[in-house]
Amino acid sequence: MTLMLLWCPALTSLTIGNGNKIGVSGATAIAQYCQRLTSLTIGAGNKIGSDGAKAIAERCQDLTSLTIGHGNKIGGVGATAIAEHCRCLTSLTIGADNSIDSDGAAAIAEHCEWLNYFSVESWTFDRSGQGATRHEEYMSITALKSHSNVRISIGGLTLMLLWCPALTSLTIGNGNKIGVSGATAIAQYCQRLTSLTIGAGNKIGSDGAKAIAERCQDLTSLTIGHGNKIGGVGATAIAEHCRCLTSLTIGADNSIDSDGAAAIAEHCEWLNYFSVESWTFDRSGQGATRHEEYMSITALKSHSNVRISIGGLTLMLLW
């Protein structure tokens, strides 16, 4: 590869295909011999690492378009170097499994305000030819929705939240496994939210639910999909802090237990839509709150084979 780069000193555009495994040494050669580049694509699986990304960023500062395919493992160090040195970028793509982490995300958010095309993992924004930069466009975004099953990294999630400070509605798709760290990022950067959906299998746990509840107190609609394991601690925090809720959905396998059920029953009297496991009550648009409606119920029947938890059962009986 070095021979080709030496023979072509006037290169302004270079594409390295997927799976060539050029590594740090290949990235360093590009940085050394291709400092006139304005467009560079490093395909998936080339494993340039943070050192390779840093070398390219420090020497190829005229880049206007940069694509780093998935699995190059550039890390927060590489992402930060790109953000700090490649100030001419208008197009940036970073594939999955690059581990850009929160520090890398913060650097991109701070320094790459002139992008009009950006893609990280499942998030893509394209304002090419529309006259608006990333900064101008994203500052006004109020609703954001991720795809399901794309395993959003903490870096990718943090970047989107930093770039969209006006969010009032956020949906995290099923199976992204954002975990406690992702939930904490939402709590830190999205305190204006009025609607939040955490899809099934994101595993935010009780600590994640507690962080969201304590910081996102303007929520009027909250959905926690099944298998997030928020427990009684998470359910109690939601009940105690999210006093504006009118719609609450808690899926199965969240283990809200009797304490969580008691807290919801005590504090969430203004709900007009509620769903927990197999139990759903909907008084939306009918003018009656949960408290007014449920106090008069004299008969209740559950579905079969839904494995009602003690928390879910306790909540229905208390209500």
TrEMBL record:
Source organism, top-level taxon: Eukaryota
Keyword Repeat: no
Gene3D superfamilies assigned to the protein according to its UniProt record, in alphabetical order: Ribonuclease Inhibitor
Record carries keyword Signal: yes
Keyword line: Signal
GO cellular component: SCF ubiquitin ligase complex
Residues making up the signal peptide according to the UniProt record: 1-19
PANTHER family: PARTNER OF PAIRED, ISOFORM B-RELATED
Name by which UniProt lists this protein: Uncharacterized protein
Source species: Eutreptiella gymnastica
